[in-house]
Design brief:
CATH topology of one domain in chain A: HIT family, subunit A
Largest interface: A-B, 32 and 32 residues
Radius of gyration of chain A: 14 Å
Number of strands of chain A: 5
Strand content of chain A: 15-25%
Order of helices and strands of chain A: HEEEHEEH
Helix content of chain A: 25-40%
Structural class of chain A: alpha+beta
CATH architecture of one domain in chain A: 2-Layer Sandwich
Strand order of the largest sheet of chain A: 1-2-3-5-4
Distance between the termini of chain A: 27 Å
Oligomer: homodimer
């Protein structure tokens, strides 16, 4: 499968699971993961085959749990929107009262602050390291 | 369990499943469902027990599929945010290019246009009618 060009441009590869491609946003304003289901060119969660959907949702759930563990966030935002990039993808974002735009949504808030290289942020390396240890 | 006061105020009851309370937003700008997992006072999806989490996610998935069927939407927005109301709840919203705020998120966009009575909108009655017919 090919990743949507906007996702390829705006995110860095982190790791893959059996069901998902897990990437990290290049926007440094929030700890922000993006998950894409593997091998399915669909726009909506309900268009995934049930088995892949459950595995993809399990990966989202693990990502959420670990992102909360490795950040000092107040809440985790989980969203599948698809208004701009229609290929199905899920945002998992750590939010806190001191972050830009709190308590509003991150999408459309201000201007991105892009990471200027391809090094992975610390939270992303921690997520990758812990991912395989959680059921 | 008690529903968060903001959810009680801003939504109308639609129907319950074994796992979820399904309500409809009183904001008439978008076809907008809100699902709350039953019997669990948690803030994050990953804090739900696995069985309830899967049933709750199945209900979200069915709601998404049916909402797309009964509206003329371009995409379904699914989101669990919790920045304002921390009790776990999931938004399922039908979006289209002609709707307010497209392609931005609905949260924080402009002022609500409240339904002034407790009658259910047509899309919500259709969702309720179809819900039991889908796996």
């Amino acid at each position: 499968m090919t990743l949507a060009p906007e996702l390829r441009r705006d995110t860095l590869p982190l790791f893959d699971t059996e069901a998902s491609i897990i990437r990290v946003s290049r926007d440094t304003r929030w700890p922000w993961l993006i998950l894409v289901p593997k091998g399915a060119e669909v726009s909506e969660m309900h268009d995934l085959q049930p088995e892949l959907r459950r595995s993809f949702l399990d990966d989202i759930n693990r990502s959420s749990e670990i992102l909360q563990q490795v950040t000092t966030c107040t809440s985790i935002n989980i969203a599948m929107l698809g208004n701009v990039v229609s290929s199905l993808h899920c945002h998992v974002i750590a939010r806190a009262p001191e972050d830009p735009g709190w308590p509003g949504p991150v999408w459309g808030h201000g201007e991105p602050v892009w990471r200027d290289d391809t090094s992975l942020p610390g939270f992303a390396r921690q997520v990758r390291a812990r991912f395989s240890t959680i059921q």
